[in-house]
Amino acid sequence: MAHPAPTAESTHSAPSTHTAQSTWPTTLRTVLGASTVVLLVLLAFVWPSYLSKVKDLPLVVAGPPAALTQIQAGLGKSGAFDITTVADRAAAESAIKQRDAYGAVVASPSGVEFLTASAASTVVSQALNQAAAGITAQAAAAGQQPPKVTVTDIAPLSPDDPRGAGFGVAGLPLAMGGMLGGVLISLLVAGHRRRLAAVTGYAVLAGLLLAAVLGPWLGILVGSFVMEWAIISAALFATGAFIVGMNGLIGRAGIALGAIVTLFIGNPLSSLTIPKEMLPWHWGEIGQFFVPGAAGTLLRLESYFPDASTLRPWLVLAAWALVGVVTLWFGRHADEEVLHIDGATEPETAPALAS
């Protein structure tokens, strides 16, 4: 007996309604991995400040030999200051303005003057204010006539940011801004020419907006607006180009690598809120070779210390930008899409056939 031929409908099974579920080992690995990441984030941001201590802060002193001996004995015994002797008050003030010292103590027949720079570090400025008060207290306790003690802030902070809190927080938008631009461009823009154009355009426009907010609007930055715009744009370009370049060099893992270097290494070591000398080991100095540290130093110098040299931080930003541009342009993944969105990229055209 012949069987009927199968129909088109019978050749296709009913659509499956099965929903895929992860295995328990995968679930466990995800929980452990996420918990580890959270721990590393906490350590990255808390560890530098937690282990920091007042030590080896450059301080200059000037005055008669007898007074200098007494000053060095009082301030040097704690190890908080690295004391250097200079000729006179003018040399002490110059050392502060050129960022060779955080403060100075100048002794003269008329009394003792403490020169501070709150724009360099509010922590050091407060320590010197306490030391100035201690001289008067010690003389009174010994039943002696206290010398005349004055405190002069050579480089005060902006009146709109008297405690420096705004300047310290400003480093996060710089790091986050460069990272955000680099990640989005890596995900949404394909083609090395378009990626380079996108990083450049983003750095210029976002730099303008950030400079306007931190400068004229909030008054945290008080230097030249054009220079502040240039510094912020350079920082955004260096970070963005590095992240996009790492994506072009090694693929999707490069996005994560660039973000980790910027946010979890460079930003905590930038020394925007505490002096670099206060970080453990040499991490404060190492942090100046990352984009957040170099950009923060440039903004501080531009706003408050125009006499100081800016060559090294500019070279640091230029080096990161160069690495980013080279890897962005020549990376083997530079023209690959990471996240495909219909209509966001142009369709490939087949080469014309030879007739």
Descriptive notes:
The chain is an alpha/beta fold and 355 residues long. Helices cover 56% and strands 8% of the residues. The chain contains eleven helices and five strands; from the N terminus they run αβαβαββαβααααααα. The chain has a five-stranded mixed sheet, sandwiched between helices. A hairpin with a 2-residue loop joins β3 (103-108) and β4 (111-116). α7 (225-250) runs antiparallel to α10 (291-304). The longest helix is centred in the first third of the chain and has 28 residues, at 24-51. The protein is elongated. 39% of the residues are buried. Mean pLDDT is 87; it is low at 8-14 and 349-355.
Layout of SSEs?
Layout: H1 24-51, E1 57-62, H2 65-76, E2 81-85, H3 89-97, E3 103-108, E4 111-116, H4 122-141, E5 149-153, H5 165-188, H6 192-217, H7 225-250, H8 252-266, H9 283-287, H10 291-304, H11 311-330
Parallel strand pairs: 1-2, 1-3, 4-5
Antiparallel strand pairs: 3-4
Helix pairs in contact: 5-6, 5-7, 5-8, 5-10, 6-7, 6-11, 7-8, 7-10, 7-11, 10-11
Distance between the termini: 60 Å
Q: Please give the share of residues in helix.
A: 55-70%
Order of helices and strands: HEHEHEEHEHHHHHHH
Q: Which regions are unreliable across 5 or more consecutive residues at pLDDT < 50?
A: 8-14, 349-355
Query: Per the principal axes of the C-alpha atoms, what is the gross shape?
Result: elongated
Characterize the biggest β-sheet: 5 strands, mixed
The computed structural class is alpha/beta
Average per-residue pLDDT, rounded, comes to 87
How many E strands? 5
Give the DSSP E fraction (strand runs of 2 or more residues).
Answer: 5-15%
Spatial order of the strands forming the largest sheet: 2-1-3-4-5
Instruction: Quickly count the helices.
Output: 11
C-alpha-based Rg, rounded: 29 Å
